[in-house]
Every structure is written in structure tokens, then in C-alpha cells.
Amino acid sequence: MNNIGATKAHRLRAALKGGYDKVRGTVTDFKNWKAKLNMFIGDRDAQMVVDKFRNRKVSLPEFSFDYKCDNNELIGLFWADETMKCNYKEFGDVMCFDATYKTNKYCMVFVPFTGIDNHNRCVTFGAGLLKNENIESYSWLFNVFLKSHNRQPRLVLTDQDPAMFEAVKTVINESQHRLCMWHIMKKLPLKVCSDLLNNTDLRKRLHKLMWNVFLEPEEFENRWMALFKEFQLEDNNWLSDMFQLRQSWIPAYFNHLPMCCLMKTTSRSESFNAFFKVFSNKSNTLVQFMFCFETAMEKQRHAQGALDDHTSRTTARMISPLEIERFAANVYTRSIFFKVQKEIYKGGWVGSQQLVQSDDANEVYQVNHSLIVSKAHLKYKVIRNKDDGSITCSCNLFGRHGYLCRHIFCVLRSKNVDVIPDQYIMRRWRRNVLPRHLSDKQHRYLNKHPQVNKLSESTLSTLPRADPVVDDEQVFMDLLGVTVPEKCDLFAPKDINNKGSGSNPKGSGNNSGKRYADPGEKHVNKRKRQMRNCAYCKEVQDNHDIQNCEIKKRDEDEARAAAKRA
To answer: b/e for 199-237, b at 16 or more Cβ within 10 A?
Structure first.
């Protein structure tokens, strides 16, 4: 388990113990022990997992789980503990999810719900396993997720999976649904003539236009149509379809939403998927999968706690004499403080600012922002309310990222303001927003934490002496945190045929043994190998290089013959 095979486990055990003579057992014993574990689980896999969650629910009322079955076959499973719920409560304004494959032997699709915590790191809000990737399955999963967390996020980010798209539109209907820009743009080489992309600046200008968060919808549409006409793309059906979907993926249509730039792609979800696969593999049973998932969660939460400790126990280096910088260091987590610190510092070098209008209620400033690299000169309008101290900037950095911009800090500095107004310190970026009791393992599991306490003590110590007093079944139950069901009414799914499930078990519908490739991958696979020039004869060749060039060989032979004659 934890994606470590018997041979590597034996080698690691020897390294930890100080020699192979101190390891109880051979590599074969380790392999036999793994086989015994699989036999212990057997056909009771799904029942063990559901019973495990039922028992956890009894001991931990804040733990939520639900499952769905069809003819005694497990087709859907969702779970979320109190830590996930607290994370969602504080950081659930923006969320993404993406299906993951090859995590268990049944090819069930793993769907983690991912967000960003107060350290700007990935955090998990819950997870699910599905047999099918259809609208019904995703709708069920989203419904139980919302039932567990009791509120919808502001912004949901997914790829272009049609079933997921329809389920989000139906179930998570109070949220703004946004498509992943990267998944869309990676199809560009397949949909647009390669001559245009390789021999013009079309690709660069498209990316610059699409990723621009400062454009308003009208300006974006005008620039898009201008590009269409310039490069004669009016007949490109894919680009026309993407333009019709522009409100679902172009930042110009989201820049009014709070925290709209926190996530633009599903890379956060894919990052967690890759992180989880370090711990799991496609041969795991469901019980082993849950063991690996909880180990991955322990690592994620340990890293989160370590960042909390680093923020509270260390002092950040100041780069200016301003009191407002020290105030920010005591409010924000360290990673967010560095971003705010940069804005405070740049506020002193951004350029000039002048008061252009003042009345009884407001002061209006114009901040001239000079860009060193492009030598552009931009102008931003900062409005400060005299009564309540509220302040806004036309760049809307606070709305997009949740902390003040350099233009506002420039104005605050001129007004000798030493603290950031409380309404502009978002709770999601503050220190210690999560309850301290969540760091206690006993709070997240039962009275004991078998994944940590039993792995080194009970499990490996049984190898290889085969001590008759050792009950292997009890060791397995302690290790996995499961009980032997008295009656097995629930079984793992069969005949799964999902698009990314890879090599499927016997009886599966996908007999090719390969994951279904997306159009972009098919396009890349079909491309011919690029022709190259021979460095000697300069001819465009695909069957030789300078090492076996016939012309080079002939010239060398002639040179040797001439040398002999001389």
C-alpha cells in the first residue's frame, strides 16, 4: 500500500532497522503477507468500506458519508470529515473538481473536491467514487456534497466534460460555473491551421486576449472580431463555438465576481490528483484505496499545520520602514503576506498620485502607474470615502484576489494610514482561521489511529516468524481500520467502462487495455516526425544524419586517397 511494493518495503525496512539481519522476513514473506491481506479483503471490499464509514459516523457525528448501490453493487460513494467541512466553510468560495482514473482495481472514477486555503495551497473539501461518468452519477454526487456542506460555492471550475457540465448546471445552480481555460486552449493546434499558428503571431495574440482580466466584455468582443477578420477565421467552427461559450470561460465575463482570479484552470484539482497518485495505484482494493487516501490527507494536513506554525513562530523580514507593512505581517499568513508586502513596496514606486476631485463624501485620486518593461503609462482611479474609510481602485485587485493593490497603498501612504481597514482583510487569508482541535488525529478517526500506530508496531512485527499467537485477521483489521462484516450485502462494481479508466478488469467493456485519448492527444500522435537537415550535406533527410552520411563518407575516402597519392 501507499504505492510501495513488497521488494521496496523490505529494502526500506532493512534501512530503518540497520541491516537485513534485523528484518523479520524475506521479500517472499512480504509478498505472502500482501497476498494474505488481499485474501482477507476478498469480496467483502465494498461492505468493509461502508461499515467502516458507518462506525466512524457513530463516533464522529460531524463525519458525513453517503453511498449508492444498484442490485447490491456499489456505484457511488461520497465522504467528508469535519476537517474538510471546516475547510469548506472558510475557503469554499471557489472550488474545482476533476475526475481521476487508475486509483483502484475496479476502475471507479475518483472525484476530489479541491479549493485553496489561507496559505494559497490546495485543500480538500470532500471526495467521491463513481462507477459511471454520466449526468445521473454526477448529479447524485453533487447533491450529497451540498447536503454535507449546506451551502453552494460562489464559483465552480470544471473541464468540458458534458455530463459534469449538465450536472453542475442543474444541481449547483446558485454558483457561477466556469470552464477550464487550459483544457480549451490546448485544442487550439488541432482546430486552427498550423501555418497560422507557427508563422504568425496569432497564438500569442489569442492568449494575450483570452487571459486578460482587465478587459470588459464589449472590448473583448471587439478585439476578438478584429482578430477573426485579420486572420480570416470567420469560417472556423470551433472558434465560433468557443465564442458562443465565452461567458463560461473568458475572464472578462468573470472579473466582477469576488475571488474570480483565484483559479482560472483546473490545475489545482489536477495537482491534487497527481499528489494522491503518489500514495495509490490502480491495483488497490477499495479498503486499500481508503487507507492511501487517508495517508494523503494526513500529509496535506500536516503541511497545512506546519505552515501555520511557521507563520506564528517566525518573523517575516521587513523591506520598508512603514508601519502598515508590520501590521500586515501580523494579520496575514506568511505566503499571503509576501504578496501584500510586494503591493505595499510597489505602492511607493508605482508612480505619482494626485487628488483630482474632493467633496463632502469622497476623495478621488488618479494614480499614474509606469511599467518599466513595456514603458507603458497606465492611469487608475482610487476613490476614498471620508466617513467610513472605505477605498476602491479601478484595477479591482481586491475583488479578484482578496488583498489591496499598490495603487490603494500609494494613497494610504500619502494619508499616513498605518493599518489596513478591517473590511479589506479577508478572513480566508488570515492566520489561524481553522479550529485548533482539528489537528488532533483522534478527533478525525476513532479512539486510535491505526494508520499510524499499528503499521510499524503490529503489522510488520508479525513478519516472518509466523508466531501462532498472532492473529493475522486482527492485525489486518487494526491496520485498515475495518471490521469483518457479519453479512455481505454490498459488492464492488464490475464492467466499468469509463473514458480514462485504462486497463480494465476482466469483463470490462473496454477491452483495448488503453485509456481513451482526447482529440488533442490523437492529433499529436498522428503528427509525422519532423524532418531535419543533415549537418554535413545540408539535405533535408529522414533516414540519415552526419554520422552515416554517404556524401561525407565519399568525401573522406577521396581525401584519404589524395593523401596517399601525395
So the answer is: eeebeeebeebbeebebeeeebeebbeeebeebebeebe
